[in-house]
Amino acid sequence: LAKTTQPISMDSYEGQEVNITCSHNNIATNDYITWYQQFPSQGPRFIIQGYKTKVTNEVASLFIPADRKSSTLSLPRVSLSDTAVYYCLVGAYGGATNKLIFGTGTLLAVQP
Amino acid sequence: EAGVAQSPRYKIIEKRQSVAFWCNPISGHATLYWYQQILGQGPKLLIQFQNNGVVDDSQLPKDRFSAERLKGVDSTLKIQPAKLEDSAVYLCASSFRMGDEQFFGPGTRLTVL
Q1: Fewer CB near the last or first residue (10 Å), C or N of chain B?
Q2: How would residue A86 be classed by pLDDT, with cut points 50, 70 and 90?
């Protein structure tokens, strides 16, 4: 099973770019990497998903090196409302190898 | 579009009692997940359904937890009997198909005294 490791917390200021890295040394060939955001008393919310190289959407970018043993979530120009816990999720989908494992989460605190 | 609905939002019970949680996924979503989230930890997958079949229940404590999705839509998670360590938020999520973005409900916060 792919185990993930993330920094427990990070601090940033409004307008800065934030990069949160997730380590997943035992990632399997058919595992995808997904990032979720969670605010207090709410369920997680999908941010971005990727398999390799770089993926970008309207809110974030996801960088995955060739060996896929880590991934980096990049949040451009954060605001106070981005203060939340960010989870890295590694898992294969379907079949006998289906395992979904959330990381420990990174608490991002954005200050004015 | 309506999101994932869960009830109740909060539940307080004493140990050894039983409790049930209900989840109504987004219409048309074939995959449904139940997670347990203990305070300060990431969600842990308990069980995953594809329509009304179980895909993964390897982390479900089957001696006390059970779940069903009889018609491939709504789902119920039951704990019987509850232990103190079951105190957590129980999250339900759904996705259109396996591998797609998961949409989470607000969760049910369970306190076992």
Answers
A1: N
A2: very high
